[in-house]
Specification:
Length: 189
């Protein structure tokens, strides 16, 4: 079962079939895909398939990205959270990838930060996920800034040669971030 997490402005919960309109608005926008290099989707069926894909990860891996909604209006804003990486990335496998994606109308309001802090906290303290890494295109300065604000440490730039499911073609330079080991410790440890 996936969690429901509340922040001052947001609800974070499992992705549901009813989120398809929001996913379509987000993932059909070329600007959203600028640094993730997936082709924008063109049909509602692709939005439905994206939700099915993530819900299958809940069943198979116990975790997958979570929906971010406006607490007041219930509007779908995007997704945040973790994906168990079962394909190797930068020499690592079976780790938790942390990421976020929002529809464009939600940008620039601190939503990725607010949802990211809360989901990361939940992943660390409640789910005790370990290890957690993140990766983003070298040019995605906003995403890199958020990762660093959330406590991720830049490790290196690498040439991503993984599967296209994450989105980056083989010739793209990608930054690799780790969550320092001290973030995995509770105050009593
Ligand atoms: C990346 C994304 C999630 C950011 O969402 P957001 O809600 O606008 O981000 P926030 O408002 O929480 O934070 C943005 C931060 O970047 C900072 N920022 C904005 N422009 C910047 C720039 N050019 N250089 C450096 N930092 C910048 C902001 O000041 C803010 O930092 P602060 O809170 O310390 O002031 C959103 O733009 C998005 O969905 N993009 C498309 C998908 C994507 O690239 N996902 C990440 C792939 S790994």
């Amino acid at each position: 079962m996936q969690p429901t997490i509340e922040t001052p402005r947001l609800i974070i919960r499992e992705l549901l079939p009813e989120d398809k309109d929001g996913i379509f608005e987000m993932d059909s926008d070329p600007e959203v895909h600028r640094y993730i290099h997936q082709s924008p989707i063109k049909t509602m069926q692709e939005a439905v398939d994206a939700i099915t894909f993530i819900r299958q990860q809940y069943a198979d891996n116990g975790i997958g990205r979570w929906a971010v909604l406006d607490k007041t209006t219930n509007e779908f804003l995007g997704w945040t959270g973790f994906k168990l990486m079962t394909d190797a990335a930068n020499g690592h496998i079976n780790h938790y990838d942390f990421g976020y994606r929002l529809k464009r109308s939600a940008w620039g309001k601190g939503i990725a930060s607010e949802s990211g802090i809360a989901s990361l906290e939940y992943g660390l303290k409640t789910l005790r996920l370990n290890p957690i890494f993140a990766m983003t295109d070298v040019g995605n300065v906003v995403s890199r800034h958020i990762l660093e604000k959330l406590g991720f440490r830049f490790v290196e730039v690498f040439n991503y040669d993984g599967p296209l499911a994450w989105g980056t073609p083989p010739d793209r330079l990608v930054t690799w971030y780790e969550l320092p080991s001290e973030r995995h410790q509770t105050p009593t440890q």
